[in-house]
Amino acid sequence: MARRPKPKDGYHHGNLRETLLRAAMELIAERGAHGLSLRECARRAGVSHAAPYRHFADKDALLYAIAEQGFEKLYAAGVASMEGFEDPLERLDAYGVAYVRFALENPVLLRVMFTLQFDLPEGAKDLGTPAFDLLQQATAEVVGPDVDSYAAAFAAWSLPHGLSMLVLDGRVPAELVEDTEAVEKLARSVYSIWRGPLGS
Length: 200
Prior knowledge:
By secondary structure, this protein is mostly helical. It has helices spanning 16-31, 38-45, 59-82, 88-105, 107-114, 129-143, 149-168, 180-195.
């Protein structure tokens, strides 16, 4: 009988940390956060059960790393989305559209970023600050100096985030979000209606 190959040692793995992060996101997508374990991530990565602990102290540290990756991607998407737009409202809308697109393309990341509860590692930073600061800056340019930009940013955030969660929870008809173009059309329609009839 052929002997089962022993798990590889993590130190000889090409990029164990990234491999473990991918395995963790696959597990969350398949089983939900309750099905996530460092042991199962190690098995999928083909390394020993002890290997993940060289990068993550525990499951919470792994979730924190996933959230960190998500916020970095969201920030980058926001910055890229506003390039080329001079009008403040167009820049804000572009960020909102990018937010919804990010959510649909990265549902596991969004869930970990905003809906999962886990203990933060010691000395952990507020991961959402750069993305929110970017939103607040864009919002301030729209509302002007006489409006509290911090509160306005939360209002501006509520639209794309709320729409994203409705889509991910299956509350929006599939044909309205069947591709990138449809997502952008829906998001811009929501913004326009909220600022128009509903916002008046």
